[in-house]
Design goal:
By secondary structure, the chain is an all-alpha fold. It contains nine helices and no strands. The radius of gyration is 20 Å and the shape is globular. The termini are far apart.
Length: 247
């Protein structure tokens, strides 16, 4: 009820479905630069249908990469206390570094957004996947408060990448016209990833006597390998026609 009371009035009064309703264009829609890194494909009238998107390799390159982030971010959220205690730290240390992750996430989300505006999307996506791999490995190297704090900072950056990418990457590659059905389908796949990750890593650690080091390091190979795939092969679908800049 508090959510309704606090959030419904500003949602109803202040939120608009599209910038065009207010006579505006999305950021970067008409930059005037020779190379347009944020393409006009984000316009409200441009976009592939869900059926068309499901026939493009771009969709699967995107969702497999986002699946990795969704799955493994959830793993680290679930098992942070368990990993720290297995490494000999007090559970209170695990709790105390959560605010570090939150602060770094808040501070770096605008930086990640700026990267998406200034360099090719596939490289930013690849960088986010590398950050994911780094967070997984750094969790296995925690030995004291300092290393725990460093891990928390990397994990905060990881969260900033995942949250910023989700809001950006689907309209960037598939347009806005049918964004609801496309992003809804993508979100369903990511929720499956978030559900699958913790049991798989948990069972693997159980088989190894409660040791999380090897399962997490092996899991880090997934985003690391996909970062290479994304950097090499991710492109705007041909169906968006002339709006094929800023891949």
């Amino acid at each position: 009820m508090l959510t309704w009371v606090i959030l419904l009035p500003p949602v109803l009064l202040l939120i608009h479905d599209k910038p065009e309703e207010k006579g505006l264009e999305p950021d970067g829609g008409d930059s005037g630069n020779a190379i347009q890194l944020v393409p006009k494909a984000v316009g409200a009238g441009v976009g592939l249908t869900l059926a068309e998107v499901l026939r493009t390799p771009t969709f699967y390159l995107v969702v497999v990469g986002m699946f990795s982030i969704s799955m493994l971010v959830t793993v680290l959220h679930f098992y942070q206390v368990t990993i720290f205690t297995a490494r000999g730290l007090d559970p209170a240390v695990a709790a105390r570094v959560f605010p570090i992750s939150a602060a770094v996430m808040v501070l770096t989300m605008p930086v990640v957004g700026r990267l998406l505006d200034t360099i090719h999307t596939r490289y930013t996506f690849a960088l986010a996947l590398c950050v994911q791999a780094t967070a997984l490995v750094s969790a296995t190297l925690v030995t004291d408060v300092v290393s725990a704090s460093l891990y928390a900072a990397v994990f905060g950056l990881n969260n900033a990448c995942s949250m910023t990418l989700f809001g950006y990457i689907f309209p960037r590659y598939f347009g806005r016209k049918h964004l609801g059905s496309i992003q809804g389908t993508g979100q369903t796949i990511l929720v499956i990833g978030a559900s699958v990750g913790p049991p798989v890593i948990g069972y693997a650690a159980e088989l190894m006597g409660g040791a999380y080091e090897l399962p997490l390091r092996l899991a880090a190979l997934y985003p690391l390998a996909w970062a290479v795939v994304v950097a090499l092969f991710l492109r705007t679908p041909a169906g968006l026609g002339e709006h094929r800049v800023g891949d």
